[in-house]
Amino acid sequence: MANETETKAKAGAIIVPVTLFEQNCTLIWCEATKKAVVIDPGGDVAKIQAAIKQANVTVEKIWLTHGHIDHVGGAAELRDALKVPIEGPHLADKFLLDNVVTSGARFGITGVRDFAPDRWLEEGEQVSIGELTFDILHCPGHSPGSVVFFNKDMRFAHVGDVLFNGSVGRSDIPGGDHATLIKSITDKLLPLGDDVGFICGHGPGSSIGQERMTNPFLTGAM
């Protein structure tokens, strides 16, 4: 054992389930710099801020995978509190961010605001936090503007609601399309490699390989 090379973790992460939707708001940070990003602050902003304090990191950005209320409900409030920019999702989800208040009202959610990000994200672009760099994959189907954040070095992705452990994102909602979603997964996510682990928007994470082999939506069982 003494001869084994010790590898220091490049990143840390805490998942903060927020709101009645139990959405996986995710705090990711660069271990070298302690600079952090909050992905999909769907609500319960005080709970998110407590997690930031617990991790003892400095949040410099907010990233959004897509524009649904359970993922963006707390974004404007958190941006104001932390005074950091919001990056993402893709411009195709603008109609969702323009109607956060209306969408929230359908679920009895108050105190949310319509907003625009400081930067829309496109396929092929990159975002970074500290020494960590993530490629942007535009993966429509669950919503038209869904994006996935992929870090090649760590073989890790945050896939939002595109792909789940044993399932895929809903497509029976405005802007959703099942065939488009499956094409996004098949063309964009599966080629990343079976060794790539991911955090998703709800429930436990998984790996590309696990989902390729067992996900009924990808094996043809559904």
From TrEMBL:
Q: Which domain of life is it from?
A: Bacteria
Query: Does Metal-binding show up as a keyword for this record?
Result: yes
Q: What is this protein called?
A: Glyoxylase, beta-lactamase superfamily II
Q: Could you tell me the keywords of this UniProt record?
A: Hydrolase, Metal-binding, Zinc
Question: Per the UniProt entry, what species is this protein from, by scientific name?
Answer: Bradyrhizobium erythrophlei
Q: What InterPro entries does the record point to?
A: MBL_Glyoxalase_II, Metallo-B-lactamas, RibonucZ/Hydroxyglut_hydro
Membrane-crossing ranges are none
Q: Which SMART domains match?
A: Lactamase_B
